[in-house]
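Model: You mentioned two targets. I'll fold them one after the other.
Researcher: Yes, keep them separate.
Model: Target one:
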Amino acid sequence: MLDRITATYLEIARAISRSQLLIILARDASLKAQLEEVLLADAHYIRVVVIPTNDTWIRDYGPLSVEIDNCIAHLNFRFDAWGGKYDASLDDAASHALEEQQLFGCRMQHVSLVIEGGAIETDGNGTLIATRGSIVCEKRNRGMDQSGFEEALSRLLGIRHFLWLDFDGLHGDDTDGHIDTVVRFANPETLLYTTCSMHHPDHAKLRQLEREVLALRMPDGKPYRTIPLPCPGLHRDADGRILPASYANYLITNKQVLQPVYAQQNDARVMDIMRELFPDREIVAITAAH
């Protein structure tokens, strides 16, 4: 299983590095050398650095990029492994280590709030969508209510319009309902959202999510164009635990969209949806089922 997961990570790395620089964090010098030997022969836009971490999911603990007065800046929020579920001491320090190695050509602002990258989704025009449970959370930021977060995110990210959903996550999800697995912006007028079959254990909560998504409105009061993503199937780990498979957990890069697929009939349908919505980007299928 680990070999297949490693192969998927290498597949992701090669895809991203075709069109932009990719920084990979290695736990030690030995792994750094192995990765360079495997990747740098056919992938030139990769830099491997030694920064030990607890978890691989840097989307949640890495810095977030914002544009302020035509300048790019990085915001480093605190990370506590989704409300203290696991040890996160190394992950929480990773952005500081990246800054010390001077890997970015812009300044970094360190923020005391605990917010994961996968918990927020924006349209790039001042609208943010998120689930309350993964942000307005006592285990993450004690004593801070929704209005406090709205004030902070307005100041830090330039958000003017907030869309909040009540969703506590798919089966197997440690994040308390990160938005990046269930609802995404394709553009400022279009929302993609996760669905599943009637026999899936998440069916009832995803039907409720659908009702909430259909009720959302743009800043001008008009409804969004909403596109349901089909069911990715039911997937379990080696111990039989349900995994939070989702077609919504794609990655947009400068010239690509890396789209997870699950060896299901619906894979082809999702690829067609993404090609229609992102005609200026290459849609790259990444096998997410093992």
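Model: Target two:
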Amino acid sequence: MAPGGPRLTRILDVGCGYGALSMSLSEGDGFDIVGMDILGTRLESVRAKMSARNRATIARIRLVAADAHRLPFRGAIFDAVVATEVLEHLDEPERLFREAHRVLRPGGRFLMTTPNAKALPYRMQRFLPERVVRKLAASCTQDSLHPELLHRHGALGTDRDPDRHRREGFTLPEVQAHAARVGLRMAVGYTYRIPLPDRVMAITPRVLSRSLATWGTRPLPLGLQLFAEFEKS
């Protein structure tokens, strides 16, 4: 940002994965984006994609290798923190809420998605063996966000694997409670996405799949995913 120029909207993309969100945001003017992920291999993939973009786009993104439990940034520097499909991978999910609150400026927003624990597929998984649950979770994964899960979810089978789901989702009251304890106020919260795996959508006729995709982004009781937006007062 040039001295004396307008302040850019600074966004932290926690668990940026292969950069789908960060790259999309970088196409717009006025954004200063930090993409952060725990795995360096994913960040290298984002860097490779960035090399094909124009200089202005590249200049809007910085990449950082770090753990979502402990964000390596000083306080009150971001206008927004985004975490898409991250919470379910954390051993201590409330730490992400606490860290988001710390790095946000007053009035800043924390936006997140995670599986909806009340969705029927996840309720059914509670009665199934662990290895079956892992395969089902992989089939429901959004491959644009976490393509590696389609091949690696549960394959390593270790507690240290950052891709492993620590739990299959949260409820709106749960995430609201986590946020309230650290001083974040829920502004918006709903469930969405028709509970159909991506692999089913892939073989659905295009006309129908487009309609389903459109409806899938709207609030849907017991939808597969949960979206919440919080504000720092």
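Researcher: Noted. Anything on target two?
Model: Strands lie at 9-14, 31-37, 61-65, 78-84, 104-115, 184-192, 225-232.
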